[in-house]
Amino acid sequence: MGKSDPHPHPHPHPHPHLPTTESAVCALRDLAAEYHRELTVTDDIGADRASRRTSAGPFTVLDPDGSLPHEAFAELGGSPAVTVQLFPEDDAKITVDGVEFADVPRDAVPAFLRSVYGGLAHVKGRLFPPGEWLVVPLPGDETYKELIFRGARTPWLARSAR
Question: Which of 12, 43, 70, 82 is the most interior residue, by most CB within 10 Å?
């Protein structure tokens, strides 16, 4: 008999759980290899180095709970230009050709990038009010959409228009 999970996944469409920044970096390395992309990762470890740790005192390495916060910045080569900033709070900021997606759950990062590299991400325009959005669909009904600022359309974004 199988046991039911006592801690159901908080997201309606669960992705494989990435409990730490390091596990997310490993997932990014696998994804970069899968899509033949060069990957550069910079790690910031400790409350004195992590960008969101403004409450930590100077030269304080540990969080108040005794944990060691770990954040990473990853850059994937090729087109589109993609960067991923992984935060200790289980979320990430993904930038695709200058279009910034903040607050992406860390667990969703691999699916997000598969959508971008697999050709599912696309640009959708509207006449009124005028604007263009980069739309990144994930498995299930999860979709991320961000406005592309006027004049910020890159060749990759132009090719992705529908």
Answer: 82
